[in-house]
Design a protein that fits this description.
The protein is an alpha/beta fold and 247 residues long. It has seven helices and ten strands. A seven-stranded parallel sheet has the order 1-10-9-6-2-3-5, sandwiched between helices. The radius of gyration is 17 Å and the shape is globular.
């Protein structure tokens, strides 16, 4: 894992977006196409803003995304499909293919559909974040590190749901769904390259646990320590509790 610390979220996002674009371009040069995963949430604002500015042949790119609430309509301000439509897809030319998670259909069938598709399209670059509780995608602690299923139905813990409320996606905690469809931890780790963007002081404890705890499903993002090509982008706030020297 390589760690990059920037002064603020804007510079973090610019650096992460540029790095992601370079890896996507490299995959296209090498294989004629690129398969990517995009994350959502406040941590990805600046990264995606930069990514859409980059010179990429999007007609050669297939996009998957990490997760979606079960039962939440796409019209909801909190919908991750809506987020990606508005913050990414509306700003780039048509992609080769786009596979969004539909939380309004039968969850088990949707997991199977997406699992079959992503198995046929090995991922070159995955853009992810880390939750306040250390989750990757919606794999809250204790995360399932063992399942081979690419997507699964998960229950969201209280801390995760409070984060969604605190970020302003929902009006009350009762509005936050209790279940979601999430990409599995093992599937995320299958990506050739991972770009992890984690700004903000409220993520500092999760970042510390990610980097300074032993790998454990109680700290789901700690599994990134085992990925050989992970770039972790922090700002001074999210890196503020680190005590080990970063090389």
């Amino acid at each position: 894992m390589q760690i990059v610390i920037k002064p603020n979220p804007l510079e973090l996002g610019i650096a992460a977006g540029k790095a992601a674009a370079e890896l996507i371009r490299k995959a296209i040069v090498e294989t004629g196409k690129a398969n990517i995963i995009l994350a959502t949430g406040a941590s990805q604002f600046e990264t995606l803003t930069q990514l859409i500015k980059e010179d990429v042949d999007w007609s050669r790119v297939t996009m998957f995304h990490l997760d979606e609430y079960i039962g939440l309509p796409e019209s909801s301000p909190a919908s991750f499909r809506k987020y990606l439509q508005e913050r990414f897809l509306a700003h780039v030319p048509s992609l080769k293919a786009v596979y969004l998670v539909n939380g309004e259909t039968a969850p088990e069938k949707e997991c199977q559909r997406l699992g079959d598709l992503i198995t046929q399209n090995p991922i070159d670059v995955a853009l992810v974040g880390i939750g306040e509780n250390g989750h990757l995608a919606f794999n809250d602690p204790p995360a399932d590190f063992d399942t081979e299923e690419p997507y699964l139905v998960v229950s969201l813990d209280e801390e995760c749901r409070k984060q969604q409320l605190g970020e302003g996606w929902f009006k009350t905690i009762d509005d936050v769904p209790k279940q979601a469809i999430s990409m599995s931890v093992k599937q995320i780790l299958k990506a050739k390259h991972i770009i992890c963007s984690v700004p903000d002081k409220r993520k500092a404890e999760a970042v510390r646990n990610c980097l300074e705890q032993a790998v454990s499903n109680q700290y789901p993002s700690s599994i990134l320590q085992r990925h050989g090509n992970c770039l972790l982008y922090l700002d001074t706030d999210s890196a503020g509790l680190l005590v080990k020297e970063i090389s």
